[in-house]
Specification:
Rossmann fold; alpha/beta; 14 helices; 14 strands; 6-stranded mixed β-sheet; single chain
C-alpha cells in the first residue's frame, strides 16, 4: 500500500482531529492529491479543530462496510487511541453504514466531507435566510442517518451538532419531526424567494444592471468585492470566510451605476443538499447581467477548481459558454512573486466558459482592476440594442431617463423634437415604452 502521511503539530484549540483523504489508485494522478488533503485540513481548521495528523490513503477499491480496507482501519484505530483523537474527518462521502462502522472501529466521532461542510455553514450563517437554508440542507442530510443530536440550536458556537460536544445529550430524532421541520423551512424559504423577487423588481425599476461574483471558496471574491465597492466585507485567507450574500452599488469608469453581488463560495463535491437549499440565493446569479467567475490562479488545483465551479453553474442552468461570464484570474501578485505566468489557459478548451472575456487581476494590490471595470462595461453594453427614437423637446423626463439609463449614440434636434439613436438593453427599452408613450422602435 502506497501512502502519503503528514504529521501536523499545532496548538490545542478545541477537539483533536485526524483528517483522512481517500483516493482510489485508479484515480491517482488525475487530481492534485496534496492540494485535496490541504483543502480537507482547511475545512477542519475552519471550525477550529486541531488537526493532529492528516493522511492521503490510496485505495485499491472501496469497501462497502467501512470504505477503507481492514488493515487501514486497524492502523488508524491505533493512531487515534495513541494520540487521543476525538474526531476523524473523512474527505469523501460516507454512507450511514460506513459512518457507523468507522465510529465503532475508531471509538470516536466520524464526519464525512458533506458533514464538515454543513458544520462550517451552520457555524458561519448569520442572516435569517442563511440559517434557514443551511438548516434545511442539514436536516435533509440527517434524514438517512442515526442523528446523534438535534440540539444544535442550543449550542453557543453554532454549527449543526455533527461533531457532538461536551455534555451534549445524544438523542434519536423522530423522522416525522424532521420531515415536519423540513416542510416548515421550505415554506419559510418560499417566502424568502417571494421577498427576493420583490427586491429584484425594485432594483429593476431603479434600472441598475447587476453583476454577480462566483468562484471557488477562498478564491478572493470578498477581497475583490471590497476593492470594487469600497466595502468592508470580511475577507480572510480561510475557507468559506463569507457565507451570507452581500450587495453594494458601484460606479463603472463611464459613470454607470451597477449592483455588485457577492455570493457563497463553491467547492468541489458540494453537497447537493446545499446547492438546492441555496437556490434562492443563487437565483441572483441566474438573473445577473454579468457573472464574474473569480479564480485563484496561484492555487495548484486552479484548473480543477475552475471545473468544479462551472459544473455547479451548469447544474443551475448557466451554460459553460454563457457570454455573461467573465473569467477573473485573481492573485496574479502571488504568481508573479513565484516567477510564473500571470494568466493560465483554460482546462476545458479555449473560450469555453469565458466567452465574456478574461482578465488578470490582483484584488489585493489593485492591479488589473481598471481593465476589469472596462470589460464589465463592455459586456453590459454588448447586451444593448440600438433604437431610433423621436422625443418631444418638452418631454424632459423622457430625455433625462434615456441619458441616465442608455447611451445616446447620435442626436439631432428639430424645432419641436429630439431625434435620437439610443443604445438600450431590451428590458430597459420595454420599461421606457411603458413609461413614455411617445417612443417607437426604429
Amino acid at each position: 500500500m502506497t501512502e502519503a502521511f503528514t504529521d501536523i503539530s499545532g496548538v490545542r484549540r478545541f477537539e483533536r482531529a485526524l483528517v483522512l483523504n481517500p483516493v482510489l489508485k485508479s484515480d491517482k494522478g488525475r487530481s492534485n492529491d496534496e492540494a485535496a488533503l490541504e483543502e480537507a485540513v482547511g475545512l477542519a481548521e475552519a471550525i477550529d479543530l486541531t488537526v493532529i495528523y492528516s493522511a492521503t490513503l490510496f485505495l485499491a477499491r472501496t469497501v462497502p462496510a467501512t470504505l477503507f480496507g481492514s488493515g487501514q482501519v486497524e492502523q488508524y484505530a491505533e493512531v487515534i487511541k495513541e494520540r487521543e483523537i476525538v474526531i476523524v474527518i473523512v474527505n469523501h462521502s460516507l454512507t450511514p453504514v460506513q459512518q457507523r462502522n468507522l465510529e465503532r472501529a475508531f471509538n470516536c466521532k466520524v464526519i464525512d466531507r458533506t458533514g464538515i461542510i454543513l458544520e462550517i455553514f451552520g457555524d458561519r450563517a448569520r442572516t435569517r435566510e442563511g440559517k434557514l437554508q443551511v438548516e434545511l440542507a442539514a436536516l435533509d442530510y440527517q434524514k438517512s442517518r442515526l442523528v446523534r443530536s438535534w440540539t444544535h440550536l442550543e449550542r453557543q458556537r453554532g454549527g449543526f451538532g455533527f461533531m457532538g460536544g461536551p455534555g451534549e445529550t445524544q438523542l434519536e430524532v423522530d423522522r416525522r419531526q424532521i420531515t415536519d421541520r423540513i416542510a416548515r423551512l421550505k415554506d419559510e424559504l418560499n417566502q424568502v424567494r417571494r421577498t427576493r423577487g420583490l427586491q429584484r423588481e425594485a432594483r429593476s425599476r431603479a434600472e441598475h444592471p447587476t453583476v454577480a461574483l462566483v468562484g471557488y471558496t477562498n478564491a478572493g471574491k470578498s477581497t475583490l468585492f471590497n476593492r470594487l465597492t469600497g466595502a468592508d466585507v470580511l475577507a480572510k485567507d480561510m475557507l468559506f470566510a463569507t457565507l451570507d450574500p452581500t450587495m453594494r452599488g458601484m460606479k463603472l469608469q463611464d459613470g454607470r451605476e451597477i449592483i455588485l453581488s457577492d455570493t457563497v463560495g463553491f467547492i468541489s463535491d458540494l453537497p447537493t443538499h446545499l446547492v438546492e437549499a441555496f437556490r434562492a440565493t443563487l437565483e441572483e446569479v441566474l438573473l445577473a447581467d454579468v457573472i464574474l467567475h473569480v479564480r485563484d490562479i496561484s492555487h495548484p488545483s486552479t484548473k480543477s477548481q475552475r471545473d468544479a465551479v462551472l459544473d455547479i453553474l451548469a447544474s443551475l442552468g448557466i451554460n459553460l459558454d454563457d457570454e455573461r461570464i467573465i473569467e477573473v484570474q485573481n492573485k496574479i501578485d502571488i504568481v508573479e512573486l513565484k516567477g510564473g505566468k500571470s494568466c493560465v489557459s483554460s482546462s476545458r478548451g479555449a473560450g469555453q466558459g469565458a466567452r465574456g472575456g478574461k482578465v488578470c487581476v490582483s484584488a489585493l494590490t489593485g492591479e488589473g482592476i481598471p481593465e476589469l471595470q472596462s470589460l464589465i462595461g463592455k459586456r453590459i453594453s454588448a447586451r444593448r440594442c440600438t433604437y431610433d427614437l423621436t422625443i418631444s423637446l418638452s418631454d424632459g423626463a423622457a430625455l433625462s431617463w434615456l441619458h441616465a439609463h442608455g447611451k445616446i449614440a447620435k442626436r439631432r434636434d428639430t424645432k419641436t423634437n429630439a431625434v435620437l439613436k439610443v443604445e438600450l438593453d431590451a428590458a430597459d427599452y420595454g420599461r421606457f415604452k411603458s413609461r413614455f408613450i411617445s417612443s417607437k422602435k426604429g
